[in-house]
Write a structure and sequence with these properties.
The protein is of the alpha/beta class. Helix content is 39%, strand content 15%. It folds into 2 domains: 110 residues, Aspartate Aminotransferase, domain 1 (Alpha-Beta Complex); 202 residues, Type I PLP-dependent aspartate aminotransferase-like (Major domain) (Aspartate Aminotransferase, domain 2, 3-Layer(aba) Sandwich), CATH 3.40.640.10.
Length: 356
């Protein structure tokens, strides 16, 4: 048998096949958009979906230039990628060396740890505690010479908490002082609307990744991007695929960039329903996180409650995530926002499961 590279032997990845399709269900398990796109948007996309668009190789520079203009950054500060996970992989592929050390917080996007293992880096970590608190001062103190990369999700993709900008600046400054890459993952930026992007010309170690999967609602099209200084972007470009995104992805992204009201409408609905869900949980005596995104971390207590709720909701066509695997967070479950009627069903079934 032909063996893979030795650094891959300890990595276990499963296929993407699900036991059943998630389509046609209310997907509250992966922080996707759970509100329908407008009829106007869908009509425009159908009109633009031509055979030529499918047959021709992509022309991603149109999307690149439009996005740079909307962001107010020069084009050489931006790189597109087929999803933010591939943007993150490009950072590891470009800068990570065997035996390098990376500092991660947990929970965080699982691919950080996978890429660290893939490129033979050692992982150091710090965890949120059982009350969803994180000691940023301690985390920043762990940045030192010899560390290669430090991660900060802003907001966190599992809890929704966001570090204040002065804290993030202190992290980037400390990393810069010691020659450490500061990778700030802003996947949920649009919900939070606080960003480190204004610092990319000030700190040559700062790399920001973002995605079109969350606030733009395009998880199925795989579009992401990197913001950084021109030299870093030039280096990351060396490992990009021949075409950064597909023609269909570029067309849809450009349409949403030209019609910001589509995302603004979703953000407004999300804010309203996030607070509605929080109120409903609070009335049931259920603690939840101070999330700034499109989900809440919900303290259901023991796994039997979470399992019972998952089963009964599944029968109603509603999907929620399993509890966190981290032992200190096993009482918590992440639940995405949805339309009000779906959230009402969730809260009603939870009340029944709790026997109230």
């Amino acid at each position: 048998m032909i063996m893979p590279n030795s650094n891959l032997l300890g990595i276990n990845r499963t296929g993407s096949r699900e036991e059943d399709t998630r389509l046609g269900k209310h997907r509250l398990d992966r922080n996707e958009r759970n509100f329908p796109f407008s009829d106007e948007f869908m009509a425009r996309i159908r009109t633009k979906m031509t055979g030529e668009l499918l047959a021709a190789y992509p022309e991603p520079w149109h999307t690149h230039e439009k996005l740079a203009g909307r962001l107010g950054v020069p084009p050489d500060r931006l790189m597109l990628a087929p999803g933010s996970e591939q943007a993150i992989k490009a950072v590891f592929e470009t800068y990570m060396r065997p035996k390098d050390r990376v500092l991660l917080h947990f929970p965080s996007f699982a691919m950080y740890e996978v890429y660290a293992e893939t490129f033979q880096a050692g992982v150091e970590s710090q965890r949120y505690d059982s009350g969803l608190h994180f000691d940023w001062e301690e985390y920043i103190a762990r940045i030192r010479p010899g560390l290669r990369l430090v991660l900060a999700e802003n907001p966190n993709g599992f809890i929704g908490a966001a570090a204040p900008l002065p804290v993030l600046r202190a992290l980037v400054e400390k990393a810069h002082e010691h020659g450490v890459i500061a990778l700030v993952d802003e996947a949920y930026f649009h919900f939070h609307d606080e960003t480190c992007a204004g610092w990319i010309d000030e700190f040559d170690n700062l790399i920001i990744t973002r995605t079109f999967s969350k606030a733009f609602g395009l998880a199925g099209l795989r579009i992401g991007y990197v913001l950084s200084n021109p030299t870093t972007i030039m280096n990351l470009m060396k490992v990009k695929p021949a075409y950064e995104i597909t023609s269909v992805a570029g067309m849809v992204a450009c349409d949403l960039l030209d019609h910001p009201e589509e995302m603004a409408d979703y953000l407004g609905k999300n804010r309203e329903n996030l607070e509605s869900l929080r109120r409903g949980l609070t009335e049931l005596g259920i603690a939840c996180s101070q999330s700034r995104a499109n989900f809440l971390a919900v303290r259901l207590g023991n796994t039997s409650v979470a399992d019972a709720l998952r089963r009964v909701l599944y029968d109603r066509g509603i999907l929620i995530r399993r509890p966190f695997r981290e032992p200190e967070l096993s009482a918590w479950v992440r639940i995405s926002t949805a339309e009000a009627a779906i959230q009402d069903v969730l809260l009603s079934e939870l009340k029944t499961v709790l026997g109230r």
